[in-house]
Automatic annotation (TrEMBL):
GO terms for molecular function: RNA nuclease activity. It holds the Pfam family NYN. Residues 9-156 form the NYN domain. It comes from the Archaea. InterPro entries: LabA, NYN. This is Uncharacterized conserved protein, LabA/DUF88 family.
Amino acid sequence: MTEIHPSQRVAILADAQNLYHSAQSLYSRNIDYSSLLEKAVSGRELTRAIAYVVRADSPEEESFFEALVDIGFETKIKDIKTFGDGSKKADWDVGMSLDAVTLANHVDTVVLCTGDGDFSRLCSHLRHEGVRVEVIAFNESTADELVEATDAFLDMSERQDTFLL
C-alpha cells in the first residue's frame, strides 16, 4: 500500500446525492464541501475534483451547484428521472466509475466520497491498476465491502465538526 506524500496526484470524485442523504438521515445537517475537498487533497497535488449532482428542481440547488464550483469542484449534473409509477431515479454510479477508470492513468490516488457499496468492484480494479484508493464517507451508511476494498477509509462521523455545516 502506498502512503500519502505531497507529490501524489489526486482525483476526488464526490457522490453528492449519497453524501447528502447520509448527512441528512444521520445528523440532519449538510456537508461542508470545502472541508471535504481540503481533507481529501490532504496536501497533495489536486488533478481533478468532480461533484456528481442531481437536478431535482428545488429552489436552492442552483446556488449549491455554484458554491461547489467556487470551492473548486467541477460539477456533473444529471436531471432526476420520474418513471410512470411515480418513482424517481438518478444515480451517477456508471458515470463516476467511467471517470475514475479514465483518470486512473493520470493520477496516483482516487478519493471516492461515497458510501455506496456498488463502488467496491471499482476500488478493486483501480488498486489492481496500481492506483491508491481512499474513501471518505459516514461509517454508519458505508457498505462494509467498500471499506474492505480501499487502501484508506476516513469516517466522516468521527469528525462531524470538520465535515458537517
